[in-house]
Design goal:
The chain has 207 residues and is an alpha/beta fold. Helix content is 56%, strand content 9%. The protein contains seven helices and four strands. A four-stranded mixed β-sheet has the order 1-4-3-2, with helices on one face. Helix 2 packs across helix 4 and helix 2 packs antiparallel against helix 5. The chain is elongated.
Length: 207
């Protein structure tokens, strides 16, 4: 197993978490919305950006039936996942959104416009819930980090980073091994953020 120690003098290549903004096509608008959401707020979770983009699909859809709208959502979710097929958070965010929004009483409404409004409301609620969840996970998870412990993380996770930031704020000393996360190299982003926090970090080449 090869490992590369990180230090402030070492320059890491700039990456964008493996997401290719040039992969557009039939659903280019949802892909563009997704990337714009990430660019507007670098701290935004990938799953939340996907949820925001899919909610915009509901708003802009020209479908006249629930079946047509559901197809638009599934096609848009597939387009988002093609941005980075290896991103677990993106896949999970899309799948959970589809389940959360379509399994609702909105499907029983005879007025299609009312049903769309209900789905948009649920989409916004789901996005807000996801944002609050990060803070809750960070607060609860930080309690498990003990002084002197050694942690292993894989790739880049804003939730995990928030948890570790909270531990640092509590003056807990720990070190982290970060897998590089090939083929995307997302672990480099995590290593860079931990280095900024002053956390001893070693990046492990995992392929």
């Amino acid at each position: 197993m090869a490992a590369v120690a990180l230090n402030p003098a070492r320059r890491l290549s700039v990456i964008s978490e493996g997401f290719d903004a040039d992969q557009v096509g039939k659903n280019d608008s949802v892909v563009r919305e997704f990337h714009e959401a990430l660019n507007r707020s670098p701290d935004m979770a990938v799953a939340v950006a996907a949820i925001r983009a899919l909610t915009s699909v509901i708003k802009n859809s020209t479908a006249q039936t629930m079946m047509g709208l559901e197809k638009d959502l599934k096609d848009a979710a597939a387009a988002l996942q093609r941005c980075n097929p290896t991103a677990i958070s993106l896949k999970a965010g899309c799948e959970l959104f589809l389940r959360y929004t379509t399994r609702t009483s909105a499907l029983e409404l005879e007025d299609f416009s009312a049903a769309k409004r209900r789905l948009i409301e649920r989409g916004n609620q789901f996005g807000d819930t996801s944002i609050r969840a990060r803070a809750s996970i960070a607060e609860l998870g930080a309690r498990f980090i003990r002084p002197g412990c050694v942690l292993l993380t894989h790739g880049m996770s804003r939730v995990v980073l928030a948890l570790l930031q909270r531990a640092v704020a509590s003056n807990i000393n720990f070190s982290v091994y970060v897998t590089e996360g090939r083929p995307d190299g997302t672990g480099q982003a995590m290593a860079r953020e931990l280095d900024k926090l002053g956390v001893p970090v070693t990046m492990v080449l995992d392929s």
